[in-house]
């Protein structure tokens, strides 16, 4: 499920890395850098593996024998690794995902896999937050979905304004988490309680 119809060859990708090394004013033919273009190309396959994953398919297998369970399901502190689409440097943080099931539930590891599938792409945090919430909402059709992301952006910490210790927080609340004050308050107290 590649978004790019014309993916360049591995050799073209490695040449591009050589160009960037020269742009940084180093010599791609010196010994220490000889294998770097190949390593970077392989690393990109891993860092951007999300483009090969269909998040909708991850959520399609659900379980409906839940004994009427209809309270909040919350997965806290999912590790988030993403990449700023403006600077191609890491966004590192964590994500809380919650939903209010309507009859059926999904394996909790699948929620973490959805975060990973959208995280391992070029992103801005606002879009990433919305994509995770919207996909869960569309596939599971629960009574509510909440996604909260807290992260540090290396484009702010290691370049530009050099602000360390700054956390960016985004959230998308749908359904009961958006409309019902008590439900939202219950969610926030579950997130804040020590786990
Ligand atoms: Zn950036």
Q: What is the typical, i.e. mean, pLDDT?
A: 93
Class inferred from helices and paired strands: alpha+beta
Work out the number of β strands: 7
Q: How many H/I helical runs? A: 8
- Rg on CA atoms, Å: 20 Å
Proportion of residues in helical segments:
40-55%
Unique bound compounds: zinc ion
User: Main sheet: which strands, in order across?
Assistant: 5-2-3-6-7
Strand content: 15-25%
Weakly predicted, low-confidence segments: none
Distance between the termini: 37 Å
What general outline do the C-alpha atoms trace?
elongated
Instruction: Give a short account of the largest sheet.
Output: 5 strands, mixed
Describe this structure in words.
With 195 residues, the protein is α+β, with helices and mostly antiparallel strands. The protein contains eight helices and seven strands; from the N terminus they run αααββββαβαβαβαα. It has helices spanning 10-23, 36-47, 55-58, 108-119, 125-140, 154-157, 176-179, 181-192; strands at 62-63, 73-84, 90-100, 105-106, 122-123, 144-153, 168-175. The strands form two sheets. Strands 5-2-3-6-7 form a five-stranded mixed beta sheet. A two-stranded antiparallel sheet has the order 1-4. A hairpin with a 5-residue loop joins strand 2 (73-84) and strand 3. Helix 4 (108-119) runs antiparallel to helix 5 (125-140). The longest helix has 16 residues, at 125-140. It is elongated and about 65 Å long. The two termini are 37 Å apart. The mean pLDDT is 93. Zinc ion (ZN) binds next to loops.
